Amino acid sequence: MTESANRALLPAGLRDMLPPDAEFEASVVHSLMSMFARHGYDRVKPPLIEFEESLLDGAGGGTSSQTFRVMDPMSQKMMGLRADMTPQVARIAATRLGTQPRPLRLSYAGQVLRVKGTQLRPERQFGQAGIELIGSDEARADAEVLVMTAEALAEMGVPGVSADLALPTLVPAVFAAYGISGETAERLRAALDHKDSATVAALGGQAAPLLQALIAAAGPAARALSELAALDLPPAAARERDRLAQVVGLVAADLPSLTLTVDPVENRGFEYHTGLSFTLFARNMGAELGRGGRYQGGGGEPATGATLFMDSVLAALPGPKPARRLFVPAGTPRAWAQAFRVQGWVTVSGLVPAADSKIEAKRQGCGHCLGPDGIVEVE
Amino acid sequence: MTESANRALLPAGLRDMLPPDAEFEASVVHSLMSMFARHGYDRVKPPLIEFEESLLDGAGGGTSSQTFRVMDPMSQKMMGLRADMTPQVARIAATRLGTQPRPLRLSYAGQVLRVKGTQLRPERQFGQAGIELIGSDEARADAEVLVMTAEALAEMGVPGVSADLALPTLVPAVFAAYGISGETAERLRAALDHKDSATVAALGGQAAPLLQALIAAAGPAARALSELAALDLPPAAARERDRLAQVVGLVAADLPSLTLTVDPVENRGFEYHTGLSFTLFARNMGAELGRGGRYQGGGGEPATGATLFMDSVLAALPGPKPARRLFVPAGTPRAWAQAFRVQGWVTVSGLVPAADSKIEAKRQGCGHCLGPDGIVEVE
Question: Would you call B81 an interface residue with chain A, using a CB distance cutoff of 8 Å?
Fold first, then answer.
């Protein structure tokens, strides 16, 4: 069967992961989760499917159009297949773990499904692995989440990790201070999204110079912070800027190797974020590896978190090292193979006596074969 | 919120796994899969959802009534949420990996969803982890799969692992040889399922003594084999018996600690199996930990495999060891915490200065606290 015929077996955007990719993904998730665990993030595992009303509550509402629904024959209520794990973890934090001491550090990893892929991410199923830090409004909490996810990626081997910082509540604070609302606000928002300074000048009224300065400030964090510091921002916006400066300082101290950029007018994809947010990238890769930021947990509790997208993370990593496969002819004492497995070999047992063990080893994809005098290389 | 209110948040049979259970499950799956990998089983990862027609093809047909369906808006075709991963792995072996050399050893782990729970397994979502050995009809292949899964369970710490062996094609071979079919066959099958020797005597005709002897032979493998050896079985059934004896011999040699029982008339749950099959149990636990056996792969290829059910496996294991949590007060140099993590500590960072670090450590569930003079215990 040809590869195109094979692909046709599955719906668009869904795929079989084959060796060695499936094992590689699992090992990367395992390493990430172990790293999170060592920093006190305790793993939770929500179900793949739950009632629509709880799944799409609050922050989950953003994924409504991306969520597959099925009827629950037991309750006759609609259920949704999760398109994002973050709202589920927020639900757990607010309910089952509502009485646990704060700050609450949680981690999670699992698969999500989406009704349609996007141009940037055509996959309809992919793995998420992430953390949530719930119950703290401290800048140190924002910094911890960013540093940990960026460091985890770097330790995995992702080259040139960078974070693009955004303040999705900054522009709304400026709009509010200048009385910009309704259609004007919408058109300005669109112009800002496209960094369209001319339209901002035409529509921005008294706020135009400030908004143009915000567009122009985008860039490396040090320069962006100094340009932002020079601006006369309304109080709510100024607080956002000061928090940004504080977090950048903490992150730079903890992880000086991390490239930080700031885009003060960025908003897309952060519709449910309530403060400092970020997107993680790797050098020479367009797709984002993860994103995170501050949001409002259950009962208005302050929270921040980050999610890594495993498909992008895997694409950014050098591939797995090939396993050392040792062919063990039929009849070899069991303890011998065991001894070699302990040494790190993958052993492949012959099920029938082979006329030539080396030929059989090669046929079964083994670089080495166990002979009467020990391991021999199969060229 | 009370635990019952919390439970009401989720549909029946679905649940949130909390700390430390979620981490424990993931670590057990990781260990199992690593063990399978060291024996040359390469991991594959099929999607959670695929076209109904491929998901429910062949051996997958048995899960049709247990499968949630959704419409694919892109192809307008029906898709199913997998209720079992085995048919997916068989599909991959027959298509994408159809040209790989045989025997093909594959492993998999993932979540499955079922429309309704059963009395024995009320969960509607649970994890599977398993192996498939495809392209060999050897008794050694049957033995390898059974030994590996049983040994993996024992190495994880499951107490008293036992395997109940079945030959789902034995009774059909007897029926065929004695010309038993139609309603008589169905009624006899039901009587055999309930070990109802009296009904078997009444309905079995000339085959009755043999069928009664098969019922009576159930028990420890050594005794069952000797009773079966004394029976005058029709040729096809005799071949099954001889294969059973061969596999029991291989398994007993490789894993003498494994308790083996045989039930020659057992059939339930093995409707799609074509030869030696087995169910794995732990001492003092009713629920099965896994099951496996011989089946027909794509294109009639001989295959055998086994699946472990993670919910039962976890229930059979002693719980996880609690982590050593070390509270690291705010302002502690980052390298210190890192040094302790390398030593195996879980570090929990303070986000704000604490008046009394030991009190704060205790509040955050840490048994130890990092002070100016090193680690102090928090009682």
Answer: yes
